[in-house]
Sequence to fold (256 residues):
Amino acid sequence: MAGTDRKRQSAPGGPAIILVEPQLGENIGTAARAMLNCGLTDLRLVRPRDGWPSPKAVAAASGANEVIEAARLFDSPEAAIAGLAHVYATTARHRGMIKRVVTPRRAGAEMRKALGRGESVGVLFGPERMGLVNDHIALADAVVSVPLNPGFASLNLAQAVLLIGYEWFQAGDRTPPSELVTNETRPAAKAELLNFFAHLEKELDACGFLRNREKRPSMVRNIRNLFQRAGLTHQEIRTLHGIVAELSTQRERRRR
Fold:
């Protein structure tokens, strides 16, 4: 899905993303791309199998170069998390240990609060094939588990990073859940809508559509509710007036 605007500033901050023994440069690159989608730039790599730097990672990052270029190498997960105050580990499997388990949404909200207090946070992701081992999960304060189809909950590395990153990002996002894009017009005022209703109902009476006096009130209510739900703009109201007027004109011409 395209949507990059190079003129706009990237969202800063966020938790560190720690990839433990990632196997392919391409997977590191796509994970970096997912990170930058969510404003995350702190990428830490623990013993990448195919070495580092990786031209394949750069190609797969699709422009997320700032993440790739700033990536840091570590010899162990312990070294990668040493400076962090809070650590989450990602896994889809039960591990037989007593550990708090949270959803990505809960983790995103918790990370927002911790980072707001000035406390650093990181998220551990395991190798593509097997995920984190128990010794790595034991390093974490909590486990993040994504509620998916229990019969097929497998995610690739970039998908897992994107899920966590998205929940982190939306926990602090202020985008309204719904908005009307009106371009150069504006939402119709109620007075304009009522004026259109009067025009429409007059013509519906004239053509006989509302001839059943007993049912007329409920029919009028249904018609009005239909247009109320549409969220009409000023320009759309003008267009509808024109349509009704033209239909009325054509009806009069046929009568002649």
The chain has two domains: 16-171, 190-255. The CA atoms of residues 87 and 141 lie 6 Å apart. The first strand starts at residue 16 and ends at 20.
